[in-house]
Design a protein that fits this description.
The complex is a heterodimer of chains A (188) and B (168). Chain A has 188 residues and is α+β, with helices and mostly antiparallel strands. Helix content of chain A is 29%, strand content 41%. Chain A contains five helices and nine strands, in the order E-H-E-E-H-E-H-E-H-E-E-H-E-E. In chain A, strands 2-3-1-4 form a four-stranded antiparallel sheet. Chain A has a four-stranded antiparallel sheet with strand order 6-7-5-8, with helices on one face. The chains are: A alpha+beta (188), B alpha+beta (168).
Chain lengths: 188, 168
């Protein structure tokens, strides 16, 4: 995805989270639409019973974070939704896709603490960059199973097999299953 | 010999089903040549369909032989006029990108084995079975002939794996 800063636009990161109910997205989109903001990029999902929205929005200058905050404060009063807004600088808006291979790593096993930490630390120490990550607690209350799925961009020169080997010892140590597969897009 | 410009969405020709080629003449053979040149000019491209160069006819070209996913299992350069899928089986997900939809990729489920029939520029009717990456590429290009983009077929991995559950 190419999202490059246009000089006449101000960019903001907006995070909204609150107890799930029907209409959170519509209410948020309405605020942004009425203010004349564009939703440039977004990801919204249910996490537990909470609905969470992360959006990159833009507006023609002049426009301030305060205007956004004021509008959300009014709209979200008494709704239990919280909004956090941050100004984005030029270098935060320009995005360059990863150059190395993309892989999907799934990790699952009996629930225990440290799965996310150990896996991501191992990857970070080798320069592997995480592009997307989801976790879920599944199974039964008696036998909870933890599932972690992440998409990672490998540094140039690193192959999927290298990642598999890298995570092999964690597999034994944490008693979890780990599989790694290539998902680098094919150009058709 | 001509490399043609790639048409990108929202050009509506990409969403329009293509006409069947009634007669293979020099104009159609020139179209096939242009498709091949355009495919070779696209970085890493393994196929181009007519609507991608602005012609709404059921013609496309495919060559996965130089791609790492297809180099061990392919039929070389395929010049396809009025191609049809006669049978399909299997399913696999691959992350696809398309020259007509720049800067976006998505996971698409495709059949892994196909039986295919098409006419070549010299009038020969060919029928064969394709599998693996070549089968994926064929389905992607044939979708173009039906006015479909990979965006019409995106399968979200996340919602597939994690069914929503009630916490209440």
């Amino acid at each position: 995805m190419n999202l490059c800063r246009k000089p006449n636009l101000a960019h903001f990161a907006v995070t909204i989270i609150g107890k799930d109910r029907t209409g959170i997205v519509a209410d948020t989109a309405e605020v942004l639409y009425r203010l004349g903001c564009n939703v440039e990029d977004s990801s919204c999902t249910m996490l537990g019973g909470e609905f969470a929205m992360i959006l990159i929005v833009s507006h023609e200058k002049p426009f301030s974070k305060k205007q956004l905050e004021a509008e959300f404060a009014t709209k979200n009063a008494n709704t239990g939704l919280s909004a956090f807004i941050r100004n984005l600088k030029d270098d935060e808006v320009c995005y360059r896709g990863p150059e190395g291979e993309l892989c999907l790593i799934s990790v699952y096993g009996s629930d225990k603490s440290g799965i996310v930490y150990r896996v991501t630390r191992e990857l970070a120490d080798r320069g592997v960059s995480i592009a997307d990550l989801n976790t879920k607690l599944i199974g039964t209350p008696a036998d909870p199973v933890y599932v972690l799925v992440l998409e990672a961009a490998l540094p140039t020169g690193m192959a999927v097999e290298d990642v598999t080997n890298l995570l092999e010892k964690l597999k034994k140590e944490l008693s979890v299953e780990i599989s790694v597969r290539l998902i680098t897009p094919v150009s058709l | 010999m001509a490399v043609r410009n790639i048409v990108t969405y929202p050009n509506q020709i990409l969403k329009t089903p293509c006409q069947v080629v009634e007669q293979i003449d020099d104009w159609v053979r020139q179209l096939v040549d242009d498709l091949v040149d355009t495919m070779h000019a696209g970085p890493g491209s393994v196929g181009v369909a007519s609507p991608q160069i602005g012609v709404s006819l059921r013609v496309c070209v495919i060559d996965v032989s130089k791609n790492r996913h297809g180099k061990d299992n392919n039929h070389g350069l395929l010049l396809m006029i009025n191609p049809e899928i006669l049978a399909r089986s299997g399913a696999a997900v691959m992350r696809e990108g398309c020259m007509s939809v720049p800067d976006y990729t998505g996971d698409v489920e495709r059949s892994t084995e196909l039986t295919l029939r098409f006419t070549e520029p010299d009038g020969t009717v060919r029928e064969f079975e394709a599998s693996g990456f070549e089968a994926v590429a064929i389905q992607h290009e044939l979708d173009h002939l039906d006015g479909l983009l990979f965006l019409d077929r995106i399968a979200s991995l996340k919602t597939g794996l994690f069914r929503r559950k009630s916490y209440k």
